[in-house]
Amino acid sequence: MKQFAAYLAVVILLSCRPLVTTFDEIQDAVKFTATSKTDEPTLVDNLKVMTWNIRFGAARIPWFGDSCGDRVLMTESDVIANMDSIVLFINTELPDILLIQEIDMSSKRSAYMNQVQYILDNTYFNYGVYASMWGAEIIPSGGLGKVDVGNAILSRWEITDAERIKLPLRTDQDALIQYFYLRRNILKAKIVLPISEDFYVVDIHATAFATDDTKQKHIDKYKEVLDELNDQGAIFVTGGDLNSIPPGADSIDFCIEDMCSEESFHTDTDGGPHREGSYFNNFVGEPDLVKPFYDFDAYHPAINLSSTKDPIHFTHSPWNTNYTNNNYWDRKLDYLFTNLPEGFSNGTTHQEVHQLSDHAPVSATLNP
Asked: Quick check: 228 pLDDT over 50?
């Protein structure tokens, strides 16, 4: 390990280009347009919004470090087939605005496909913006190689402004791991809508595995961004993969729940649990990190969970589950909120597409 670290230090010092992309506190997001645009709707009676963690187009492939598997790379045909299934679902459900997490831009694991452009060119969406959360020229683990993955927002209407807002790094890692690790963000975009000249979409993918207070910091920063928009009188819709269970849900230690058989990833050097885990004290599970969004009258959840233990609201599917009786889902991690007083209608978790990702899409209709 020391020799490898020394080798990397030499490469970094001698290279004209850094191995890992770092980011400013706030910077412009990357913009995309469809190769062939469709007509923008001029009237918006019911605006459908969807959020979806698409798992970089890997569908249900048992993946290295991500599930109970050892795959590291997809073939081009794998990627195209999986992305075509995602595109088919989008074109069937027809959301007007789509928030995406874990979308690959130019990664070896997904045959270097620009997945933002692929969705734009195979759907009716006209505009897209992207913010990388992990950009590295090479990740040595398992031959993963070049990686660029992040958040995206797609829209039928023009996106005039978009920025990447930096989220804090984890503090529970050594310097070498942290250098090559994810740099998560909030993606904020202003969209020109017929219903409003001051309409924003905010997309987040909070940390999943920190054992320090990083997840708390991510959620706090997320609410700060939303509060600023609310205070300035802007309309927003927001959501993403918060990697947090809703208020009142069972406080399960998902580090243990998700452990694959005969694996050591979730144990420390002494054989105890939680080298990677949920939050602070992993033995008591997660606190109600997203409770402020439910308690604040200005924010309206897409699906107001009267029973947070109801499987109909679950959006995440683990890999070590015995899939019987369609029991694919075991927790809610994905959310939509808005500050429109009328809130949402027709909130839905699309659990039927369990073969397309380890997260279910969540959609709802705004009532402007």
From this structure: yes
Strand 196-205 to 159-166 pairing: unpaired
Q: How confident is the model at residue 251 (pLDDT cuts 50, 70, 90)?
A: low
High-pLDDT (> 90) share of the chain, %: 59
Nearest CA to 204 out of 102, 301, 331, 297 is that of 102
Residues 167, 362, 121: CA angle, nearest 5 degrees: 80
Q: E strands, 141-294, where?
A: 145-155, 159-166, 185-193, 196-205, 235-241
pTM: predicted TM-score of the whole model, two decimal places:
0.92
Residues 6+ apart with CB under 8 A from 15: none
Q: In this structure, are residues 274 and 319 in contact, taking their beta carbons and an 8 Å threshold?
A: no
Q: Find the helix or strand (DSSP H, E) in which 14 lies.
A: helix 2-14
> Tokens 């913009």 sit at which residue?
31
Range with the poorest average pLDDT among 153-157, 187-191, 288-292: 288-292
Q: 61, exposed or middle or buried, with CB in 10 Å at 0-12, 13-18, 19+? A: middle
CA contacts within 13 A on the Cβ side of 42: 1
In angstroms, rounded to a whole number, what is the distance separating the alpha carbons of residues 109 and 126? 27
* C-alpha closest to that of 334 among 355, 348, 346, 353: 348
| CA–CA separation, 201 and 234 (whole Å) | 10
The pLDDT confidence band at residue 325, using thresholds 50, 70 and 90, is: low
> What does CATH list as the number for 23-366?
3.60.10.10
Tell me the domain boundaries of the chain.
23-366
Per-residue pLDDT, 207 = 93
Amino acid letter for position 1: M
Q: Judge contact between 48 and 348, C-beta under 8 A.
A: no
